[in-house]
Amino acid sequence: MNELVNMVIPENIIFFDEQEELSSAYILEKISTRLYENDYVKESYIQAIKDRELIFPTGLNTTTFGIAIPHTDSKHVNEATIAVGILRHPVAFQEMGAEEVEVPVRLVFMLAIKEPDKQLETLQSVIALIENEDKMNALVHSKNEFDVIQLLN
Description:
The chain has helices at residues 2-7, 24-37, 44-55, 119-130, 133-140, 145-152, and strands at residues 13-16, 59-60, 66-68, 81-95, 98-112. The protein is α/β, with parallel strands linked by helices.
């Protein structure tokens, strides 16, 4: 879990407070663009993340609420990081392994993995976090980036 904490930084945490109807495509665009603006990923990452999500959806239903873990090839990554999107209102993502099923997502963990052999380890850290219902509930109700970092510590 410590590796996960070190990979999440305040400028890569985005709160989606908008009342209007958001789409999964908009969420992916916004988070991946933030990673690009902060120089963690190449410009190609933005389209690659959207393309991969269409082919291999990443929505997961959990005991608390839906979570998405979008990621793509390491060739689009400059430096490893994890961006966190906190959605005040659920947004439909397609379910991993069952594209016809929609998942009402409240948290997005967008992975930018530089070394392909670290992908499984990072995914396992995210899954361990997801299994902690108290932390998941606290994350979706966090007020600012500092709260998110504190919860991950």
